[in-house]
Amino acid sequence: MAALLETRDLTIRFGGHVAVDHVSCAFEPGTLTAIVGPNGAGKTTYFNLVSGQLPASEGQVLLAGDDITRLPAPLRTRRGLGRAFQLTQLFPNLSAQENVRLAVQAREQGRGRGGIDIYRVWLDRKTWIDEARSILASVRLDDKRDAHASALPHGDQRKLEVALLMALDPMVYMFDEPTAGMSVDEVPVVLDLIRALKARKDRLILLVEHKMDVVRELSDRIVVLHNGALVADGEPATVIASAVVQQAYLGVYDAEVGPSAEHDGTPPRPLPAGRGGS
Ligand SMILES: Nc1ncnc2c1ncn2[C@@H]1O[C@H](COP(=O)(O)OP(=O)(O)OP(=O)(O)O)[C@@H](O)[C@H]1O
Ligand SMILES: [Mg+2]
């Protein structure tokens, strides 16, 4: 199947520091790719380059074969790239339901429905609200739908962020540590949603995740970044077992010279076999 999303030599430099270093990678719809690597490896920055939050210093981003490297973030969203919003970027003083309803509405209106028909608008609004409620139920926020988004506890805000992404239903879903900061009983709710999304087989999912048991279970493929560079890419069992991953997580891998005893600063996270990670 043709790649829906591709990056070619994608690079960004901050001063002398190369945070994402010539990353070339293509992703197909119907697959979930986990992007892993130690703290500071460039995972979030890679997402920022793909979604347009940061401008590339070099290289290209292609969506469905079109070069979108110079396209601003909102236009990329319109073309189907979806990144979980931070609530601070949305409407903290609207209720959870209103936030999700607006995302559903934005998606539908973006698809070019409409026309000046007051009855139609009323009917649509009802449909949007029903869908918003059903999405909120899927993240177990149905009992909090009238609460102001800003008044929700941290874990609920994270779930609302996921709900908003679900409401927009992009072609490409980018999840950056979607369960970070969630309580143990909230984590499965979000993982179930990602699982269901994957089962649809028509969306492309990129997941940055430190919990290796989650990565092992959900991913079709694992890409490993280290010091901004892609150092491994392949089938999960093979990549997890590879020396590159073991060493990258132990913080002793240097893509230029191979394994070394030194590490350049940020303490890497371990690669646990079971639960744990962040
Ligand atoms: N706006 C910026 N200005 C300067 N340096 C930046 C900026 N954004 C990221 N960096 C640097 O780029 C590198 C990659 O950071 P990034 O946040 O992408 O890592 P990460 O893999 O997501 O790490 P973590 O697992 O901790 O989330 C880091 O050294 C970081 O300090
Ligand atoms: Mg990050």
Can you describe what's shown?
The radius of gyration is 19 Å and the shape is globular. Mean pLDDT is 86; it is low at 252-278. It is built from 9 helices and 12 strands. The strands form 3 sheets. The protein has a 6-stranded mixed β-sheet, with helices on both faces. It has 278 residues and is α/β, with parallel strands linked by helices. Helix 6 links the parallel strand 7 (172-176) and strand 8 (204-208). The longest helix is centred in the middle third of the chain and has 21 residues, at 118-138. It is 36% helix and 23% strand.
Helix content: 25-40%
Uncertain segments of ≥5 residues (pLDDT<50)?
A: 252-278
State the secondary-structure class. Answer: alpha/beta
Rg? 19 Å
Number of helices: 9
How do the strands line up in the largest sheet?
A: 6-7-8-3-9-10
Q: What sort of overall outline do the alpha carbons produce when their principal axes are compared?
A: globular
Approximate strand percentage = 15-25%
Span between N and C termini? 34 Å
How many beta strands in the DSSP annotation?
12
- Cofactors and ligands present? adenosine-5'-triphosphate, magnesium ion
Order of helices and strands, N to C?
Answer: EEEHEEHEHHHEHEHEEHHEE
Largest sheet, in brief, is: 6 strands, mixed
Mean pLDDT: 86
